[in-house]
């Protein structure tokens, strides 16, 4: 990988990935919907290897214009991280979420025409949890509780669509999944980050509706993994990004609180083999050599 194109470069993970790629001497063509000033202020990384382009016109026209950046074509990998709801990733109605499928299909078609050697799709663990929910009989009488239904369903549909299009376009395709990502400063705007901040201030745990298994990974390791996947990720593989040790969200909050209070009673739920299987990171280690080592506990210890 000599060049990389990052769609969704102004997002939480996208900005961190751009920094990681630049630190590894990769030329980066960063794409986002925010203006140049926003991107470079947030990036805060001095490099002449990055070019930022704002999507400020219809996507088809923008992608057609993007084809002229031929100096990024050699040994190029495209990372597709772009996803949006109304004002955050998961909210909005079915139309708000399903429009992301159109964007994915257009970006993949561009990657093929541009000559990218690999298309890396950043999905969510919701995709795998929702798929399992559909395949079981639970959908007949149990409400889906892991995340907003339209978000989870759209993530699942998006992966199936991109998988089909990659076959039709004959482009190497890699799917990636992760649950929850946090940085050591808790700068993200997620419910988990804001709750951890409240716990640092000794506030109470808010209501938690999500009862499904999940896993917290740290942002620096996540983008390290994406860099390795850009180098070594194999066509058609679905990589889970994490240690493979899920817990429930409530347990994460209770444990975070316990660590801050120097208590030892950490809670860990046990899960069935079919659940643990969708949190299995073995393919990532086998193909890229990368292993996640950090946990949320380091965040709590920093707060003590």
Automatic annotation (TrEMBL):
Domain of life of the source: Bacteria
Coiled-coil portions: none
NAD-dependent epimerase/dehydratase domain: residues covered: 5-208
InterPro entries from the UniProt entry: Epimerase_deHydtase, NAD(P)-bd_dom_sf
Protein name (Swiss-Prot/TrEMBL): NAD(P)-dependent oxidoreductase
Species per Swiss-Prot/TrEMBL record: Campylobacter coli
């Amino acid at each position: 990988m000599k060049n990389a194109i990052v769609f969704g470069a102004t997002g939480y993970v996208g900005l961190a990935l751009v920094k990681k790629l630049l630190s590894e001497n990769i030329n980066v063509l960063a794409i986002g919907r925010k203006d140049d000033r926003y991107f470079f202020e947030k990036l805060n990384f001095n490099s002449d290897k990055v070019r930022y382009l704002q999507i400020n016109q219809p996507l088809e026209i923008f992608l057609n214009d993007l084809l002229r950046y031929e100096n990024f074509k050699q040994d190029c990998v495209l990372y597709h991280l772009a996803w949006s709801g109304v004002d955050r990733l998961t909210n909005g109605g079915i139309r708000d979420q399903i429009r992301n499928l159109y964007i994915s299909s257009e970006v993949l078609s561009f990657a093929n025409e541009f000559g990218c050697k690999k298309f890396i799709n950043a999905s969510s663990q919701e995709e795998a949890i929702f798929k399992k929910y559909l395949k079981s009989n639970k959908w007949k009488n149990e409400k889906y509780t892991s995340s907003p239904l339209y978000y989870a369903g759209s993530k699942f549909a998006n992966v199936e669509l991109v998988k089909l299009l990659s076959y039709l376009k004959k482009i190497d395709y890699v799917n990636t999944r992760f649950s929850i990502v946090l940085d050591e400063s808790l700068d993200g705007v997620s419910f988990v980050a804001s709750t951890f901040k409240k716990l640092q201030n000794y506030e109470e745990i808010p209501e938690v509706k999500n009862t499904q298994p999940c896993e917290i990974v740290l942002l620096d390791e996540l983008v390290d993994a994406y860099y390795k996947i850009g180098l070594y990720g194999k066509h058609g593989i679905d990589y889970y990004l994490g240690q493979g040790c899920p817990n429930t969200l409530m347990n994460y909050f209770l444990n975070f609180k316990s660590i801050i209070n120097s208590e030892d009673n950490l809670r860990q739920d046990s899960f069935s083999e079919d659940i643990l299987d969708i949190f299995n990171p073995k393919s990532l280690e086998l193909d890229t050599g990368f292993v996640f080592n950090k946990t949320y506990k380091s965040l709590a210890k920093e707060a003590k």
